[in-house]
Amino acid sequence: MDRNQAHRNRRRMLKGLHFVGLFLVMSIICIPGLWIILNSFRPTVEIMAKPPVWNPSFTLDHYRAMFGGAGQGGVPVFSYLWNSIVISVTSTGIAVLIGMSGGYAFARYKFSGKSGYFVGLMLFRAVPGVALSLPLFIVFAKVGIIDTHFGLILVYVAMNVPFTIWLTDGFFRQIPKELHEAAEIDGCTRWQAFWKVEFPVARSGVASAAIFAFLTSWNEFALASQLTRSVGSKTMPVGLLDFTAEFTINWGGMCALAVLMILPALILTFIVQKHLIAGLTFGGVKG
Amino acid sequence: MRRRIPEWFVLLMPAFIVIAAVVLIPLIFSLYSSFTPYKLTRPSTLWTWIGERNYERILTDWKFWAAFGRTILFLTIALNLELIFGLGIALMVNKVTWGQRTLRTVLMFPMMFSPILVGFQFKFIFNDNVGLVNNVLQSLGSDAALPWLVDGKLAMFSILFAEIWMSTSVFAILILAGLFAMPRDPLEAAKVDGCTPWQSFRHITLPFLMPFIYIAMTIRSLDVARAYDIVQIMTGGGPARRTELLWTLMSRTGYVDAKMGLANAMGYVSILLSIAFTIYFFRKLSAARAELGMGA
């Protein structure tokens, strides 16, 4: 009886600890983001208030200023948003096409030095953006594509291709070879067999690769901050710095832009989150 | 069908071309310029060959070594803590029976944040004047405003916190996926045979999770330099170079001091560092795969 009771107590305690632990972890994950969202709706006076004000009031001032064009500091948010969308979407599209063809080559063909090529490609992805930005800055300036959409798109395509190859390679490998062989016997060319049979099966993998490519381009800062100079090509991560002056920072405005930046990524990820996890694990474990 | 150029080569061609144009050629150029005293302000310096003097200079410069050591220390602490926290979180979430999907979705939250955004977010939260942390501390009765980003040690802590906040979820999610994929039988058999929970974790769960851990490590190691964004916005390497990492030192040398040749030499050191990390984890990954019989 006594032992039973002790055992039960211990179990209850473990359960409590488990709950508390999870609660703590989840709060640490959520609070920073929520704090940013909350502060994007608070007037600047309240953000700066000393002693701190804990029951927040609500205002849309920061959003109004942000979308009103020449608001506080006149940060041209619309241009940044547009640049970000154009650059991320285009580079993702191209990177997925190139990466898919590469991934297919690795998954379906045998050739000597395959794993060498593979690791070699990955190593190019590992080159730190800052280290790459130094020579790219000079080369792009010479070629005259600095501060253009084209230049940044080119860079992001190159950045995303290796990882896309990794992910799609894993997915194509899941598909049995018999599938496209059967299609070819039925009179398809290899090209048709790919688009009509193999691509639909691997679609979720391609989708997850596309999301990763998109997030990388959407969020990239180290290269974009050096390769863009003007309103015509600055992306949002670079634009975020417009809110900081030497000693004053427009916290509310920055929060509003941060919310604008995170929203598309958030929505996109929610839509495809199942594929995302599958993509990462298949690509890696079975690859 | 023509047999001269193999199909796989045609398929890989676009990838090779893009990478060669955007990564390889600039890297070759930067390798060359790291042997010159190239300064952005004086283009003619590009044609003076000074041999390995740049490398000699950085290798004898204590500022460089301080940044280098700090970077290694930073990565070691960050990666280890991320792994431990990720493992802990995954085990906890795996135990949950209700609302697991929601928890998993919440876990993915930090993955979507741009590093620059994470840096800004924590710059705000750790701000000594208006930040959340100090506001809470003050409301709880402590009257000293802790200088989170101004004091060297506290700033390093804040940056580490931001880095770990951002990257732990990669580990947690991948390890969680591993836990889902794990067969139940060996664990039950171990229980019947009288293993303690610790023993069955150590000898059954952990070995099975190893490939997943190495995938997470490999994915992480491809992106170690992301910390640059965080440091750049949070402290810019300050105060007085106390949080200077290899990457911020490099960008300061290159863009602020315009000493491109010297900066490129540093760049090569950082590239080698990244490559070493990646190769190390790739090796581990294929070894772990082979052990589980998952290799192709």
Rg over alpha carbons of chain A: 25 Å
Secondary structure class of chain A reads: mainly alpha
- Share in helix of chain B: over 70%
Give the radius of gyration of chain B: 24 Å
- The CATH architecture designation of chain B is Orthogonal Bundle
Oligomeric state of the chains present here: heterodimer
**N-end to C-end Cα span of chain A:** 54 Å
What is the helical fraction of chain A, as a range of percent? over 70%
- What would you say the CATH architecture of the largest domain in chain A is? Orthogonal Bundle
Order of helices and strands of chain A: HHHHHHHHHHHHH
Q: What is the count of distinct domains of chain A?
A: 2
Structural class of chain B: mainly alpha
Proportion of residues in β-strands of chain B: under 5%
Strand portion of chain A, in percent? under 5%
Written description of the protein model:
- The complex is a heterodimer of chains A (287) and B (296).
- Chain A is mainly α and 287 residues long.
- Chain A is built from 13 helices and no strands.
- Chain A folds into two domains: 63 residues; 216 residues, MetI-like fold (Orthogonal Bundle), CATH 1.10.3720.
- Chain B has 296 residues and is mostly helical.
- Chain B has a single domain, classed as MetI-like (MetI-like fold).
- In chain B, helix 5 crosses helix 7, helix 7 crosses helix 9 and helix 11 runs antiparallel to helix 12.
- The model of chain B has no long low-confidence stretch (mean pLDDT 85).
- The chains are: A mainly alpha (287), B mainly alpha (296).
- Chains A and B meet through helix 1, helix 4, helix 5, helix 6 and helix 7 of A and helix 1, helix 3, helix 4, helix 5 and helix 6 of B.
